[in-house]
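pasting for the record
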Amino acid sequence: MEETTNVLERKWKLIKHTFDYADRVGLAELFADYLDFIKDKPELGGIIDNLQGRGLIPKDIFLDWDGVRSWKKEESVLSDAIRDNFHQLHKLHTCLINEIYAISVEKNESKNETKKIFFDQERSRLHIRGKKIKIQKFSDQYHALRIIFCEPNETSKEWFFSEIAERAGDGTLTVNHNKKYYNATYQIRKKLAMEGFPEFFVSTRQSVKINLSYLS
């Protein structure tokens, strides 16, 4: 929609300039050109219907097409009717641009949201690309994810199971801690694969890290 927005802005700028110079003949052609452009863009028609449905612009905001073109046959004087039409078109243009911008922002936020990967400790939910995966709270899997996602700048690093155990407060470290958190991350990996996220973890017997393809 960026190109459509740019075209609308260029057309409106020219209309505003022509209106300021009270060129009725030129204004009629530009009005018709602007309206023709909207008519040829189905996506704009949908936005206009939405704006009208929400009461942001009146149902009769569109000008009479033949009436606009007929201005060229009359005197080059800006009548009250033409001034009213100009202000109506200005309102339509402003609403269109604002709505297109809002749609763009919403799409970008949605796109960013689907890219997010984080662990909600309070609800014990792993969020991956818009999907929530339930993890048993206070389980080994829970503590492994809690540690891995604790600091955003450390999420991509390689985590040794001994470090996870230490941060989880497991007390005196033993060989069993490697097995404990290896098994925990293995079960998480298995669960995520079933949810459509294969190879989430890259593991060795001593360490684990998130597959970088999920972080890009």
